[in-house]
Amino acid sequence: MRNRKAIAAYHLMLIPGFVLLILFSIIPMSGIVIAFEKFVPAKGIWGSKWIGMKNFEYMFSLPDSRSIFTNTLVIAVSKILCQLIVPVFVALMLGEIRSVWFKRTVQTVIYLPHFLSWVVLGGIITNMCSLDGIVNRMVMVFGGQPIMFLASNAWFRKVIILTDTWKEFGFGTVIYMAAMTGIDETLYESAQIDGATRMQRIWYITLPGILSTIVLMATLSLGNVLNAGFEQILTLYNPLVYQTGDILDTYVYRMGIENAQYGLATAVGLLKSVLSMILIILSYYMAGRFANYSIF
Amino acid sequence: MTHHRSRFLTALRMNWWIALILLLLAFSCLLPILNTVAISLSNQAYAATGRVGLIPVEFTLSSYEKLMAEATFGRAFLISVLRVLLGVALGMLTTILTAYPLSKSTRAFPLRNAYMWFLVFTMIFNAGTIPWYMQIRNLGLLNTLWALVLPCAVSSYNIILMMNFFRGIPREIEEAAIMDGAGAWRVLLQVYLPLSLPSLATIALFILVQHWNNFYDGLILMNKPSNYPLQTYIYQLTVRIDPSTISDAETLREALKVSGLTLNASKLVVSMVPVMVVYPFLQRYFVKGLTLGAVKG
Questions:
Q1: Cα–Cα distance, B95 to B88 (Å, whole number)
Q2: Which of A4, A11, A14 to mutate to test the interface with B (most CBs of B within 10 A)?
Q3: Is B127's CB within 8 Å of A270's CB?
Q4: pLDDT digits over A42-55, tens only?
Q5: Residue of B nearest to A287 (CA)
Q6: Which CATH class is domain B64-294?
Q7: Do A119 and B163 touch (CB under 8 A)?
Q8: Are residues A71 and A131 in the same domain?
Q9: How is chain B split into domains, by residue range?
Q10: Domain limits at A12?
């Protein structure tokens, strides 16, 4: 009796959240048919003409489609790799520091950028990378020629990957630091007695101790292979670097929102969503398999 | 003996190197922010030549005075404050009310897994920007504050974080409350919530920062710049220098000069302030909240 009342209360509690999910996640899924239509806003979803896979064929026939896929993959995978490697190194270095005060200060400062928006950082980076910016001043001090970093196809991706790593490495470091506190202290003590060097300690105790976290991060990041960082690129790119910087999300934004090519934009978005879903499911499966992790 | 001492010295020297590298890394995270603060406090003409480093040159508050006088900035700031207040309230409500039933076992709540699968499905598959935009338009929310709040009110990530925390609370406490005659709502409000304050604080701060920093939804869901929240306003202001119209370096330099470097810098600084203010609190709760959600295994 009491149990039934509790269950009724649970259903009631779930109403607000699930109504919002239905409104803003489920109902929009019916809009996916736009991807298979020659969509005309005035005729609506049900009145527009069905054209099957034409939008997808058109997408692949575009000369840009190749560079957009390449850019998305190259930028996203590079970011994932940097995001896996850099924080581990920083966490290992922080682990060697005895002074608690120093450790905490460095930690606090390095993950500050994670909480700042790409709009703000985009503005700051644009200033710093401009011809008169602080970066080019340093280049000139060392005798180089000033470079328009954000307008150069040779530099754009590098700036994107570097600034993203810079923004997020502190965040990753904190995760590995947390994992390191879980390592059994007595292991280090016996290593000390056996006369292990610093490198031996790191190699045989610390790294194996955080390996499961590294594996977990690596598998979960698989779901991001098509997420090259929409907000970052939108705030930093310009037509001069579309060739190396235009990604799926920015393309959908320009085609759909700015040029009102709804059919094409929905098709590109759908393709990305489906591929991402497959990747995420795969990553959850692998995380469960290799890191004994489950999201729920 | 000498062998030991030399090893000790190498270790010591190594520590200095590590400390130095870490200091440089930390400095690199502060440098851009300090540079922007310095530019915002410098003389406009001087700043435009790019010679301001970490210390303001010809200190002046004029850019902040100009900022205060600008009505559009004030309005954008107000819209952002409103969306944060509304967004945090609504976000906390949905997070708590959704996470609590989902934290129950299937024995206590038989349909729990069905709801959970539904939630995970919306988390891993989305219809894409265009259908999402059209739904918000069909609901008549474009150009309203609700468009910035309702569509992102449910965060699966936060719900799972909260759910895992609820699960960590010993069952006996709940059973004792039920013995005393408390119903599901009373148990949630009087037993679970008081025990979850650090997690609630973490999630509230997450939602706050996310709402404050979001610029993209403002950009596509608001047709009029007068409805832009602060970050969208700044985006459109600082990022809209179109280099395609600028052929050589000289004209680009001129374009950047007239765009008001110090004024923009002051806007960037002001928009960072709220995040900086809550940052120490974030810092305190964040590791606990994060490790609960991300590295649960």
A1: 10
A2: A14
A3: yes
A4: 888 888 889 989 99
A5: B297
A6: mainly alpha
A7: no
A8: yes
A9: 2-48, 64-294
A10: 1-52
Do the Cβ atoms of A156 and A250 come closer than 8 Å? no
Q: Are residues A4 and A126 in the same domain?
A: no
H/E stretch holding B162 reads helix B156-167
A32: DSSP letter: G
Do residue A59 and residue A163 come from a single domain? yes
Number of H helices, E strands in chain A: 16, 2
What pLDDT is recorded for position A131?
81
Is residue A174 a contact partner of residue A107, using CB atoms and an 8 Å limit?
yes
User: Taking CB atoms and an 8 Å limit, are B125 and A277 in contact across chains?
Assistant: yes
Q: Is residue A139 included in any domain, yes or no?
A: yes
Mean pLDDT, range A185-213, rounded to an integer = 89
Q: What percent of chain B has pLDDT over 90?
A: 48
Q: Is residue A125 part of a domain?
A: yes
Stretch 117-176 of chain A: residues touching chain B, C-beta under 8 Å: 117-128, 130-134, 136-137, 146, 148, 151, 166, 170, 174-175
pLDDT at B236: 83
Chain A window 208-237: which residues touch B at a Cβ cutoff of 8 Å?
Answer: 212-213, 216, 223, 230-231, 234-236
Same domain, A46 and A64: no
Instruction: Using CB atoms, pick whichever of B26, B184, B252 lies closest to residue A109.
Output: B26
End-to-end CA distance of chain A: 28
- B296 pLDDT band, cuts 50/70/90, is very low
Is A108 in CB contact (< 8 Å) with chain B?
yes
Q: What is the spatial distance between Cα B149 and Cα A162, in angstroms, rounded to a whole number?
A: 32
- Asked if residue A259 is part of any domain, the answer here is yes
Q: Is residue A296 one of the residues assigned to a domain? A: no
Q: Which of B25, B239, B265 sits opposite A235 (nearest CB)?
A: B239
Q: What are the tens digits of pLDDT across the range B191-221?
A: 999 998 888 988 998 899 999 999 999 999 9
Model pLDDT, residue B152: 94
Confidence of residue A276 (pLDDT cuts 50, 70, 90): very high
- Judged by CB atoms closer than 8 Å, whether chains meet at B275 and A116 is answered as yes
The DSSP string of B164-192 is HHHHTS-HHHHHHHHHTT--HHHIIIIII
Report in angstroms the alpha-carbon separations of B69 from B73, B130, B233: 9, 37, 16
**pLDDT value for A179:** 87
User: Is the per-residue pLDDT at B14 higher than 90?
Assistant: no
Contact A17 B14 (CB under 8 A): no
My answer on whether A39 and A63 are in the same domain is: no
Q: Which residues is A50 bridged to in the sheet?
A: A37
Task: Select from A24, A127, A179 the Cβ nearest to the Cβ of B135.
Answer: A24
pLDDT beyond 70 at A14? yes
My answer on whether A143 and A10 are in the same domain is no
Q: Do A116 and B101 touch (CB under 8 A)?
A: no
Last residue of a domain, one of A36, A52, A68: A52
pLDDT by residue (tens digit) across B174-190?
Answer: 989 988 888 999 999 99
Classify residue A209 as exposed, middle or buried by CB count within 10 Å of its CB (0-12, 13-18, 19+).
middle
CA distance B184 to chain A (A): 5
For residue B85, the distance in angstroms to the closest alpha carbon of chain A comes to 18
A40/A89 same-domain check: no
Mean pLDDT for all residues in chain A: 90
One domain for residues A45 and A79: no
Cβ-based contacts of B205 with chain A (< 8 Å): none
Count of domains observed in chain A: 2
Q: What's the pTM? A: 0.87
Which B residues 137-156 touch A at CB under 8 Å?
Answer: 139, 150-151, 153-154
User: Is residue A120 a contact partner of residue B264, using CB atoms and an 8 Å limit?
Assistant: no
Give the pLDDT band of residue B78 (cuts 50, 70, 90): very high
